[in-house]
Amino acid sequence: MTTPLADVASSGATLRAFLHGLPGVDRVGADQRAKMLGTRSIKTTAKAEAIDLAIRMVDLTTLEGADTPGKVRAMCAKAAHPDPSDPSVPKVAAVCVYPDLVGLAVEALGGSGVKVASVATAFPSGRSSLEVKVADTALAVAAGADEIDMVIDRGAFLAGDYLKVYEEIVAIKAACGEAHLKVILETGELATYDNVRRASWLAMLAGGDFIKTSTGKVQPAATLPVTLIMLEAVRDFLAATGRKVGVKPAGGIRTTKDAIKMLVLVNETVGEGWLDPDWFRLGASTLLNDLLMQRQKMATGRYAGPDYFTLD
User: Fold this and answer.
1) Which residues of the chain have pLDDT under 70?
2) E strand or H helix at 131
3) Which of 69, 118, 195, 209 could be cross-linked to 140 through a Cys-Cys bond (beta carbons 3.0 to 4.6 Å apart)?
4) pTM (2 decimals)?
5) Which of 181, 198, 276 shows the shortest CA–CA distance to 236?
6) Catalytic site residue from 78, 91, 115, 212
7) What is the C-alpha separation between 212 and 230, in angstroms, rounded?
């Protein structure tokens, strides 16, 4: 790691040398640490605070071919007012939709403070030309997206063409304008923890504002060990460059217990500075209902009925 960071992408060879010069991941150690942190429990006031924090970190997501305007409007209403009967419930961080539905979401959320995120770059496969990926991004930004969630070209990455992946991220970042860029690594396809670390650094070097685990379409998705490795990467990147980058695990986070495990992981790995929606998000479609149910259970001593909350 002796090459100056400003020069690591000057050629494919220097970029490859830098990424392969990163310390290797101790797979057994990463698995054991994640498992140990996953057993931590928090109770009473701390748990109530963690639930509200997790709600504020949710990117409420619908990314299905059958998405309709009505479904998006309903999701936006829920994002701004998760429990209309209880105004103390915080709003979520963002809603995430396909580019052609961004305008609808912006209109539905007007003035709420909930951000609109949009997937782009031929999500979820990333199999398209750079021109199409840039146009996809530009469409979402022009419609009012605050955030873009792009997918990297995993085929290029796994073939060792790191410079192509880097240059695509740089181009998409430029197309984002003022919108923040979350770079989806699709860790379930990267095969090794070393590749997760390399992809994390590659995305950050290219200008990503967040690194994100998954599209939610590939398993395994947001596992604790993978999230741990990405958190370690943003910590080390901050130390090396002075630039802070966020992390977004997405896919498979369904319960309050899952969410709290993630928050413990953040606190123990990178510290309280990342325990903020500006720096940590939870990509989910069904998590919010469980958080609301657990919140009500703590407040009233009983669970709501199965039809109390709207379906996500």
Assistant:
1) 1-3, 304-312
2) helix 130-142
3) 118
4) 0.95
5) 198
6) 212
7) 9
Helix axes 256-269, 44-57, angle to 10 degrees: 90
CATH dotted code for 5-299: 3.20.20.70
Classified as helix, coil or strand, 278 is coil
CA distance 158 to 141: 29
* Cβ(235)–Cβ(228) below 8 Å: no
Looking at residue 302, its pLDDT comes to: 76
First to last CA, the chain: 45
238/245 Cα distance (integer angstroms): 8
Q: Residues 238, 245: contact at Cβ < 8 Å? A: yes
Choice among 136, 149, 153, 258 that is catalytic: 149
Distance CA 10, CA 19 (A): 13
Q: Percentage of the chain with pLDDT > 70?
A: 96
Determine if residue 51 is left, alpha or beta; phi over 0 gives left, psi from -120 to 50 gives alpha, anything else beta.
alpha
Measure the CA–CA gap between 243 and 158, rounded to whole angstroms: 27
Number of H helices, E strands in the chain: 12, 8
Our answer to whether residue 248 is catalytic in this structure is yes
Structure tokens at 262: 């993630």
- Which residues neighbour 15 within 8 Å (Cβ) at sequence distance 6 or greater? 8, 9, 162, 163, 166, 202
Whether residue 247 contacts residue 279, with contact meaning beta carbons closer than 8 Å, is answered with yes
Q: Which of 78, 91, 173, 248 is catalytic?
A: 248
Answer yes or no: 149 catalytic: yes
User: To which H or E segment does residue 134 belong?
Assistant: helix 130-142
Closest Cα partner for 100 from 147, 59, 68? 68
Amino acid identity at 275:
L
Contact 163, 9 (CB under 8 A): yes
* 75: DSSP letter: H
| 212 catalytically annotated | yes
Of 94, 96, 91, 102, nearest to 69 (Cα)?
Answer: 102
